Every structure is written in C-alpha cells, then in structure tokens.
Amino acid sequence: MKTLWLSTLGRETLIAGDNTIGLLMVLCASAFLCIWLEQRYKWAVRISGAIIGLVLGLLLSNLGIFLILGAVNNKNKGEKQC
Fold first, then answer.
1. Is residue 71 a contact partner of residue 17, using CB atoms and an 8 Å limit?
2. 65 phi and psi, to 5 degrees?
3. Which candidate among 14, 31, 39, 60 keeps its CA 20 to 30 Å from the CA of 50?
4. Are 2 and 54 a contacting pair, CB within 8 Å?
C-alpha cells in the first residue's frame, strides 16, 4: 500500500504526518469504533477495547494510512525522529 500512496500522492502515507486534523480524526474514529464494538458484540468484550485499538493502530500503520510518529502522537515536537 505504501507504494500506492507514494505513486499517487507523492508520500508514503495517506495522511501526512503534519496533518494534525486528519490524524486526530483517524484516531478519534478508531477510538469510537473500539468503544462501539465493545458495547455491541460479546467477542469484543472478551478481547477488550484497548486490545482492539492496538490491533487497529497496527493495521492502519502497516497499511500506510498514517505514521506512528506523526505530529499528534510525537511528544518531542521540536526534535526530528529517526
């Protein structure tokens, strides 16, 4: 997927690392999805919303939707990450 984003958008991810609003929207939507799944399905209660959120974050990162070290979840905003 990263090559698809690179060829069409010119970057490795669908949402750029400096797009704070886009990153916040994705993170809030995934938190909503985890809470909704946990309230709706019995299997999600057994797994826990936190574990579902971790797996969802891993999937979104590996599919190239957003970077793990983006502007939203970067603690040291003045320093560049390797």
1. yes
2. -75, -45
3. 14
4. no
The pLDDT-based confidence of 14 (bands split at 50, 70, 90) is confident
CA distance 2 to 7: 9
- Name the residue among 32, 50, 82, 25 with its Cα closest to residue 14: 25
DSSP 77: T
Roughly how many angstroms between the first and final C-alpha of the chain, as a whole number? 22
State the Rg of the chain over Cα. Answer: 14
Quick check: 67 and 18 in contact, CB under 8 A? no
Block residue for tokens 């299997």: 43
Summarize pLDDT for 31-79 with one digit per residue, the tens: 999 999 999 999 999 998 899 999 998 888 888 777 766 555 555 555 5
Name the token pair of 77.
Answer: 């905003």
Count of residues in the chain: 82
